[in-house]
Amino acid sequence: MAYNLKETYQKLTDPKSIVVVGASASHGKPGCGVTKNIIENNYQGKLYLVNPKADEIRGVPVQKSIDDLPDGIDLGFLVIPAPFVYDSMQGLLKKGCKTLVVLTAGFGETDEKGKAEEQRLVDLADANDAFMIGPNVVGICTVDYQGKFAGILPKMKKGSMDVISASGATVDYVIEQADIRGLKFDNIFSMGNSAQYGVEDIIEMMDHTHGPDSAVIKLIYMESVKKPRKLLKHARSLTRKGCILVGIKSGVSEGGARAAASHTGAMATSDTAVQALFDKAGIIRVKSKYELVEVACALNCLKGREEAKNVAIITDAGGPGVMLTDELNNAGVATPALKDATQKIIAEKLPKFGTFSNPVDCLPTQTAEQIAHVIQTIEDQNEDIDAVVVLTGNSMLTDKWETYSTMVDLMDKSKVAVVPVLSSATTCRGLMDKFIGFDKTYFVDEVHVGMALGKLHNRMPLYEPEGALPGYDKDRIAAILEGVQGIVPPLKCLELLDAVGVKQPGYAVVSEQQALLAAAGNLTYPIVAKIVGPLHKSDVGGVIVGIADGPQLEAAWEKLRGIDGFEGVLLQEMARGSEVIIGANKEEGYGHLLMFGLGGIFTEVFKDSQFTLAPMGLTESEALIRRIRSIKMLEGVRGQKGMNIALLADYLTRIGQLVTDFPQISEIDLNPVKGEEENLCVVDCRVII
Ligand code: ADP
Ligand code: MG
Q1: Second label for 352, Cα 20 to 30 Å away, from 276, 299, 386, 613?
Q2: Mind listing the pLDDT tens digit for each residue in 531-588?
Q3: How distant, in Å, are the alpha carbons of 111, 208, 228, 242, 492 from that of 198?
Q4: Which residue's CA is the nearest one to ligand 1's atom 23?
Q5: For all residues of the chain together, what is the average pLDDT?
Q6: Which atom of ligand 1 is nearest to the CA of 574?
Q7: If you write DSSP's letter for every residue of 377-423 in order, what string do you get?
Q8: What number of other Cβ atoms are within 10 A of residue 309's Cβ?
Q9: pLDDT-derived band of residue 641, with 50, 70 and 90 as boundaries?
């Protein structure tokens, strides 16, 4: 690594000095915007401006040339026309200013020439151990300075939340949405073209800088994941420290056929690995900027809680309460009925025809006092409630500001989290603006509260590595795979399965007819005869199941012998029961993507499979298996025997270990794993190196 993580992060977020090269006083010029925004927003450090044609801008003296600057300025903004950026960057680097933000556009996003020039900037920065953000950046804002040349300026608050975005426009839209909802920011990084460094690198810096208890919300927008393992490592670490990461990864639909010889490869889409990475890192995935803001609002209302498991609802109308209940319950968030005693006390101050359970319906005459009474009662009665969502419209029957201001109070003072839904966006517009002036956020729609709380509730837990797998013989596997390239021959696959520690049916391999019956003698009928040679055996009629005796076996041999590519026959005892697939596929940059899915003839129809990244412990494997839709079927239904899920998890974990230890394996398919209860066998295995 060429730059110091901690030092660079400090220079980006809390620079003691800043220089703007290309500072300007003329309106409309990017160099004007950034200069103005830094000066007018109370930057406390030393600000230098460079422009050959100006003496002074907004009271700050201007240097004619970079040569006139002192050495070692912490942070440099470049906002000069593209053809001059290289030389200016060189000038700044000579002066020891090595943390740079290139706001100038007209590079990689334009044409080949721009791309080449951008690469020159990267090479220059690399050669000087510098850290460059951009080019083509809208800006960086921190609690200390607003280094943004265009668009809305965010409201800042230490310790609130960070945004790291690969798109400048997205940053602006997020700020716009967040602003009307009263949300504030700690650091905003917009990465522009991410030529030298991108979102992943900022996440890494944050991880190095944040202490063990850093519950910071981080909103992420990415278009491509260039360094998946780096993102995974540091996002996991941040999550472990208490941060909650919420992210958009766009560009997921670039489908198209993928070249893969295995099922696992074919079932995965270009987005599967991204999703698996987000899951493994505990990053909450959302689709839109609006959802990003909704989840951020929920976290803000939850006051440091990571989620609300049990929610109470106070409403002023039936419909919204029902809609929220549905949304919460569908997401697995409980809305438990309140205790009788609680209901009795609540009823004391509510209208006679209200409802007092959960939702608590105060009817359109809902008052501030009633809301406060319900929340107080929930607390006094020690109800097991994490958050109270208060739905309030505007019936024009009560004083709305009294309600809103009471809510501000309750949000501050209550032990439970209070989540306001202020749904009268027109008649209460002014009051809502007043409300956020108290440093509070609100929702407009109750179903979105349900969505946001649901996303938090269903955030993937971080799974940690677990103990060794008995019978997994790494040395033996290494010996088996020694020198093997391409498709691993069937016999070696059988040996490999044995060394990995998964069960397979009794088998024998026969290459001459004379040996056929004797080989079958060691097995228990019924057996299966499979052609050795072709890769996809069923496709060429090369699998004959249910062979009951010697004569049938002789007939099977005759049939298989006639198929193109015949080298011999694999005899296998028959397994009974359900079929599942376990597989792994190497994804460039991600490591191995592991798949567990429903097997059998409907695999492709139902596409009921789940993915994760290797390696996994048993707990993670079991949780993954339990996420497939047909899990009930695998567990056994209506008297049918199921599969032992813990044992399946053990097999899956072993394959995860195998591909981690032997990354030369590009694809592996156990298709199917077949059986009942503890008797689970891998009946077919394909491995490609
Ligand atoms: P391929 O995938 O190359 O077509 P398989 O060995 O997977 O060949 O066999 C095809 C299908 O035959 C399996 O999906 C399974 O349904 C069935 N089958 C194969 N071997 C056995 C076995 N030992 N016991 C029971 N069924 C089997
Ligand atoms: Mg198969």
Answers
A1: 386
A2: 999 988 999 999 999 999 999 999 999 999 999 999 999 999 999 999 999 999 999 8
A3: 20, 16, 12, 23, 43
A4: 574
A5: 94
A6: 24
A7: HHHHTT---SEEEEEE---SSS-HHHHHHHHHHHHHH-SSEEEEEE-
A8: 16
A9: very high
Note the ligand closest to the C-alpha atom of 683: 1
Ligand 1 centre to CA of 574 (Å) is: 9
The torsion angles phi and psi of 234, rounded to 5 degrees, stand at -85, -30
Q: Are 327 and 391 in contact (CB under 8 A)?
A: no
Ligand nearest to the CA of 582: 2
Tokens at 149, concatenated: 């040349």
Q: For 20, how many CA atoms within 13 A lie in the half-sphere containing its CB? A: 32
Say if residue 505 is preceded by a cis peptide, omega within 30 of 0.
no
- Of 604, 684, 685, the one to substitute when testing ligand 1's pocket (max ligand atoms within 8 A of C-beta) is 684
**Tens of pLDDT along 594-620?**
999 998 777 778 889 999 999 999 999
Least Cα distance to 102 among 66, 138, 76, 78 occurs for 78
SS3 557: helix
Q: Whose CA is nearest to atom 5 of ligand 1?
A: 684
Q: How far is the CA of 324 from the CAs of 48, 192, 311, 313, 445, in angstroms?
A: 53, 38, 10, 8, 9
Structure tokens that stand for 84 in this block: 């001059």
Average pLDDT score over residue span 344-357: 96
H-assigned helices in 195-256: 199-209, 228-240
* pTM of the predicted model over 0.90: yes
Tokens of 188: 């905003």
Nearest to 634 by CA among 584, 591, 597, 664: 597
| DSSP for 490-555, written as a single string | HHHHHHHHHHHT-----EEEE-SGGGHHHHHHTSPSSEEEEEES-SSTGGGT-EEEEE-SHHHHHH
Tokens of 500: 């990995």
Contact 538 CB / ligand 1 (< 6 Å)? yes
Are the C-beta atoms of 199 and 165 separated by less than 8 Å? Answer: yes
Q: What average pLDDT does this structure show over 654-663?
A: 98
Counted residue by residue, the chain has a size of 689
In this structure, which ligand is nearest to the CA of 526?
1
Spell out the residues 6+ positions from residue 641 whose beta carbon is closer than 8 angstroms to its own.
577, 676, 677
> What's the confidence (pLDDT) of residue 603?
79
Distance 462 CA to ligand 2 centre (A): 33
- Ligand 1 atom at shortest distance from the alpha carbon of 535: 3
**Does ligand 1 come within 6 angstroms of the Cβ of 493?**
no
